[in-house]
Amino acid sequence: MFAISCHGTISPKQYSYCSNSSDVILAEDTFGTFKNESGKTETVRRFTLSNKNGMRIEIINYGATITRLNVPEKTGRLEDVVLGFDNIEGYLGSSNPYFGCIVGRVANRIGKGMFHLEGEEYNVTLNRGTYHLHGGKKGFDKVLWESHVEGNKVTFSYLSKCGEEGYPGHVLVQAMYQLSSDNKLILDMSAISTKPTPINLTNHTYFNLAGHKKGRTGILEHTMCINADRYTEVDHESIPTGEIRCLGDSNMDLRVPRVLAHVLSATGGIDHNYCINRCSHGGLTFIARATHPQSGRFMEIYSDQPGVQFYTANFLPDPSSEDTLIVGKNGANYVKQGAFCLETQNFPDAVNHVNFPNSILNPGYTYTHRVIYHFGVL
């Protein structure tokens, strides 16, 4: 198994964590249908992983998307802690802000939708003003993936063809989800390519450990800790300038757990890439810990990636304005700062900054990305 290292080379990675517990059950059913671009009706498959603790995760093969995640609280009561929709129509709609999906080829932003590779200029889709976001108009989040079940693991595969959204090379990408008996959700992403191409995959789940319906009130009750003392500076469009700044005593410094009510009051909201303080051996590193004291739930994240985008859902509809509200599961209204994302990743726009970690995948090598979400109760 191989992975892109933070020093711009491809280096071998060994992972020892394996989950083959008989305590985990995997079931499969359908999540509706839709017509693809050629007019053919496609069936969306849903896969449900559950363990003896009551933890349950539902994933569909449209966008390899997490649609539901039930986690127990300190009294044992289960609550769905991720934002999403009750049916496939919600995920197909224009109001879907990347709920729960895998995004790529390149997550986050590419400034001006342009990069140079081996002396050639490439222009990818400008789907947000003057920049490219989360893979373009039809990124990996908006396609139907193939699926394969083995034991308590489900693997989704997608072939991105050369020229798709302007990227070079055919790319075969996979995302494997598994659930452990001790409430760990493990996600392994990988990709191979026929030509040199930038790759930066992530999962874009919106979390609210108070419960997906609890909105901003629930989010303000959380505490957050992120293992980073630096971040990538950005301009007014959130495009990296190339500078890596110290968090120091800034209001975004989360090395010591802070209540999000205080953080959001001081910053107005966060949507920044934190540069993770990585382990010297290059394996999995502690990324972040979110805690909701009232329910007792916490979530710890571990990954092998150099960065994490901490996003406080600033662009969800503002109920104090004339924004059209997003109606989610069980009729819940999803509003501004009513969730947070912790997107493990390479640095944004890395393809245009030589001082950022390498993001180029060459033929003959494999991109890998592992992230573990560990849920527990205080």
Q: How do the strands of the widest beta sheet line up side by side?
A: 13-14-15-16-31-25-24-19-22
Strand content: 35-45%
Integer average pLDDT:
93
Q: Percent of residues in helical segments?
A: under 10%
Number of strands: 31
How far apart are the first and last residues' alpha carbons, in Å?
A: 35 Å
Count of alpha/pi helices: 3
| Residue runs with pLDDT of under 50 for 5 or more positions | 1-20
Characterization of this structure:
It is built from 3 helices and 31 strands. It is mostly beta strands and 378 residues long.
Q: Helix and strand layout, with pairings?
A:
Blueprint: E1 2-4, E2 10-12, E3 25-35, E4 41-50, E5 56-60, E6 65-72, E7 78-80, H1 88-92, E8 102-103, E9 109-111, E10 114-117, E11 120-123, E12 131-133, E13 146-150, E14 153-160, E15 171-179, E16 184-193, E17 197-198, E18 202-203, H2 215-220, E19 223-226, E20 228-234, E21 240-246, E22 258-259, H3 260-267, E23 271-276, E24 285-292, E25 297-303, E26 307-311, E27 326-327, E28 333-334, E29 341-345, E30 360-361, E31 367-377
Antiparallel strand pairs: 1-2, 3-4, 4-5, 5-6, 6-7, 8-18, 9-12, 10-11, 13-14, 14-15, 15-16, 16-31, 17-30, 19-22, 19-24, 20-21, 20-23, 23-26, 24-25, 25-31, 26-29, 27-28
In a nutshell, what does this entry contain?
With 378 residues, this protein is mostly beta strands.
